[in-house]
Amino acid sequence: MHLLLDFTKHLQEYDLTVRVDTSASRIGILGASGCGKSMTLKSIAGIVRPDAGKICVDGDVFFDSGKKLCVRPQKRNVGYLFQNYALFPTMTVEENVLAGLENVPKKERRERCAAMIARFHLAGLEKRYPGELSGGQQQRVALARLLAGAPKMILLDEPFSAMDAYLKDQLQEQLFEMLQQYDGTMILVSHNRDEIYRFCEDLLVMDRGRIIREGKTKDVFANPKVKQASILTGCKNYTDLVRIDAHHAHLVDYGVDIETKGEIPEGTTCLGYRAHDFIPVWEAEEPVNAFPVREKSRAALPFEENFYLVPQGDHREHNPEHICWFVQRSEYPELETKGLPRYLQMAEEKMLFLTDPGD
Amino acid sequence: MQEVLSILSGLDWSPLWISLKTGLVATILCFFLGIFAARKVVKRGPGAKSVIDGILTLPMVLPPTVTGFFLLLLFSKRRPLGSFLYAQFGIKVVQSWLGCILAASFIAFPLMYRNARAAFEQIDENLVYAGRTLGMSETKIFWKIVMPTAGPGIISGTILTFARALGEYGATSMLAGNIPGKTATISQKIAMVIQDGDYLTAGIWTLIVLVIAFVIVAAMNLAASKSIHHVSRW
User: Fold this and answer.
1) If you write DSSP's letter for every residue of chain B in order, what string do you get?
2) What are A's interface residues with B at a Cβ cutoff of 8 A?
3) Tens-place pLDDT, residues A184-222
4) Which of A43, A44, A88, A132 would you mutate first to test chain B, the one with the most B CBs within 10 A?
5) Average per-residue pLDDT in chain A?
6) pTM for the predicted model, two decimal places
C-alpha cells in the first residue's frame, strides 16, 4: 500500500502543508490540538477539500488540483473512525452496521451484516440503539460498521481522547486487537504519545500545520531532533546548549559543561532530557555530566515520586526553570533513607540533542 | 342549556372545516418549504445567513395585518401579479380560500423554518461525514440520518405551525375576507359573532378550538416522545 500526500490548505491561523510519501502500513500523526492533524485526515477522507496539491492512495488519485479532480468521499472507500464514533443515534446496531454496507450488492448485505455482528461480539444487541450501549460496545459497533465495507484504508481520529484512563486502556486494547487482522493502511491521529508509540511503526510529528519530523516511531522517540517534536514525545526537561566542540558543550540553564564520547551534532542548540532518565548521585564528589540540585517541590504518586528541582550549577547565566525528575520508588530505595540526592547525572545515550527553530 | 342545544343544532359547522383544511394545507406547505429553507440557510456563511434568516423570520415579528397588507399589495387583482394570475390562469387569491391558505402559510412559515433550522444546527456534523465516508448518497444521508436525528425539533415545529395556521386571523381577514362557507375560519367567526354581541356562540366556538388544540398538541407530543425515547439526550 502506497500513500502520497502533497497538499496545502489555508486555515485560519496557519497554512497546512503536508508532504508525505510512504509505504508504511501503520502510520501515526502526533501533534498538539489544532496542529492540523485532524484536517489532514479529513482531507484524505474527502470530508474537506485541500486548496492545492495531490492525494494518492495506492495508485488511485483522490485529489489533484492540477487536473481539477476531487473524488467524492462516498467513492474513496476510506474508513473513518470519529472521536465519538459518530454512530447514527436513531438507528439500531444492526441498521448502523448495514449503513456501512452501502457499496455492497443488496443480496449480500444481510449476510455480511450478520457476519460482522458475530465477529465483533454484538450478538443480542442488534435491536439496541447506540444510546443504550456501553462505551466498549459502541466502539465495536463503530468498528463493525467501518470494516463491513472492507475499506482500503482506515483513519482513526483521536479515538480515545474523551475517555477516562481506565476505560481508555481497555478500549485501546480492544481496538488494537480487533484491527490486528486488518491488512490495509491505517493512520492514527493523536496527541497522546503512548497510543502512538504502542500502535504505529511510522510516525509524523506535526506542529502548526507542518510536519516537523518523520521516521520510524522508535527512532523519533529516541532522537526527536527538533525541540517541538521532543516536547510531543513527552520529554519534559530542556536547556539551551552552547556547543564548544564535537565532544563538549555548555548547558546554559544548568550551569555545567558536558563531555560526550559520541559526537554532538553540529547546529545543536538545545538539550532535552527525559524526567525518568536522571541518575541520582549522593556522593559529595561531583560526577561527570551531572549538576547539583535544590528541591523546589515534590509530589508523591502511588508508585512514583515526582521531584521539581532547581539546578545549582556554578556557571548558570539566568535563573532556570525547574526541572522534573520522576522516579519509581522501588528503583531507588535510598530516597527513603538518604533523602534528596546531591547531584543528578545524565547518561550520554539518553541525551537528546535538538535544534530549536523557535516560533 | 336549552339555549346551547338549540344553537348547537342550528350551528353552521363550515368554519370548523375551513379552519382545519386551511391549517392542514398550510402546514404541509410550510413543512416542506420550511425544511427546504432551513437546509439551505444552515449551509450558508454567517453574513448571508443573518440576512436571509431575518427576511424569512419577518412574518413572525411583524403584526399579521402588515403581512396581510403586503400580501394584498402582491395579489390584489388591481396589481400586476394578481391581475396576471387571474387573467392567465383564473387564479383568484383575494377573497378566496386560496387567500386563507396563503395568509396562514406566510404567518406560520417562520415557526417551521426556525425550528427546523435549530434542529439541523444541533446535528453533530460528524454524523453527516460518517455517512459520506460510508458511501451513503446525500439524499440518503438527509432522509436516514439528518431528518430522524432532527426529528424532535421538526415535530415541534410542525405542531406550532399547525397551531398558528389554525388560529390565523389578521392576515386572513385582510386577504381572504370573511365569506361564510368559503373563507370564514373559526377565528373570524368568533370575531364576527362577538361584534353582534352573541357571546354564547363565541363561547361554543372557543370551546371547540380549545378541544382541537389540546387534542392535536397532546397527540403529537405523544408521537414525538415515542419516536425519540431511545435517543439519549441530557
Assistant:
1) -HHHHHHHHT---HHHHHHHHHHHHHHHHHHHHHHHHHHHHHTS-HHHHHHHHHHHHHHHHS-HHHHHHHHHHHH-TTSHHHHHHHHHH----TTSHHHHHHHHHHHHHHHHHHHHHHHHHTS-HHHHHHHHHTT--HHHHIIIIIHHHHHHHHHHHHHHHHHHHHH--HHHHHHT---TTTT--HHHHHHHHHHTT-HHHHHHHHHHHHHHHHHHHHHHHHHHHHHHTTS---
2) 42, 45-47, 72-80, 82-84, 86, 88-91, 99-100, 102-103, 129, 131-132, 145, 149
3) 888 988 888 888 888 888 888 888 888 888 888 888 888
4) A88
5) 84
6) 0.77
